[in-house]
Design brief:
Chains A, B: It catalyses: (2S)-2-phospholactate + GTP + H(+) = (2S)-lactyl-2-diphospho-5'-guanosine + diphosphate. Two copies of one chain form a homodimer. Chain A is of the alpha/beta class. Helices cover about 35% and strands about 20% of the residues of chain A. The interface of A and B includes residues 120, 139, 165 and 198 of A.
């Protein structure tokens, strides 16, 4: 089994730009990436690849192998799957609430494919036992797409139901979940910049 | 064990007012309530109470006992807990993605209390084995509050990690989750009014 984390530091997380500067966002994604790698390591996954269109921000990466592919996310990942000769866990880099227990749960599925839904129809992680029989299509409502692709390819699948693994950090409101439910450097970074405030039923962010 | 569902139909779900009229919101919350009651029944919970400040919309309720209490949510629930002589599951009425399997999982906790976090710091369900030793405080960041209350009361607790049980339907974006992950009358109601459209990374709603 091996894991692959698609990653792009340059101009990352533009939807956080209302609350974080470009420099802050680039620092923050690096912290999130480190936490995801750490969770994978803790779960016992030894082969970890970071797949990026550029080496920017990955110069000092020692905990994972860096694969550069300038193609878009789907093309790059599908090439990766084609060439893989073992089960593949695709995990997004913006999941600081993903723990090693989640990873163990996802990769111990009895099914051919395990799909971890993210907020707003996304796919946060995807474990594929037979990578030559599966192709990904991220963007849009990729969760439903990934379910359909599995069925069309004759691969049965499990949906992994987790609030924490399901929380990808894209929007300012997602930072609230990180502050409430998270730990580690990514959370520390955000708690140095914001405090929580209650408004309109749900908790929001206030700059410090 | 018994379950209690706080419920208020009149003027319900004001944060959905950008996309649903008052009449629609009141119809919709009734459908969500029915689904929650059905999931509780399917999980084998025989005593189900609906706790409401008014009888409006509950005139024909046959599947649950209706308890009227004009006090605010916290006071009414705490009175309910004080008088309870068995474990209590408090479950919100806006959880159409909550299944009977979730309910079985929550109520089979080995701990004294099981807390199901909702989006934005909320508490979607709360299972309390010793109701005389626990008091609730909803609103605001109630998830963290409910964890602290358990600890202060000497009750150990489990956090139940579920994307689906964690999705309370309050904002238009939550309807997207219902359309993607849901089933039953509440989902049908919404799919008759909206379709999904991809924008800015996550899927959004478009009126039909």
């Amino acid at each position: 089994m091996k894991a692959v984390i698609p990653y792009k530091k340059a101009g990352a997380k533009s939807r956080l730009s209302p609350v974080l500067s470009l420099e802050e966002r680039e620092e923050f994604v690096e912290l999130m990436l480190s936490q995801v790698i750490e969770s994978l390591e803790e779960a016992g996954i030894e082969k970890i690849d970071v797949l990026s269109p550029s080496g920017y921000g990955l110069e000092g990466m020692t905990k994972a192998r860096v694969l550069l592919d300038e193609k878009d996310l789907n093309e790059a990942l599908n090439r990766y799957l084609e060439e893989a000769e073992e089960p593949v866990l695709i995990v997004m880099a913006d999941l600081p609430l993903l723990s090693s227990d989640h990873i163990k749960g996802i990769t111990s599925t009895k099914k051919d494919v395990c799909i971890v839904p993210g907020k707003g129809g996304g796919t946060n992680a995807l474990f594929i036992k037979n990578p030559s029989s599966y192709r990904v299509r991220y963007y849009g409502s990729s969760f439903l797409t990934h379910c359909s692709i599995a069925t069309a390819a004759g691969q049965n699948f499990e949906i992994y139901d987790s609030f924490l693994a399901g929380t990808d950090i894209d929007e300012p409101e997602d930072l609230v979940e990180l502050m409430i439910h998270g730990k580690g450097p990514a959370r520390d970074y955000i708690t140095r910049k914001f405090r929580l405030e209650v408004s309109r039923g749900r908790v929001g962010l206030v700059p410090l």
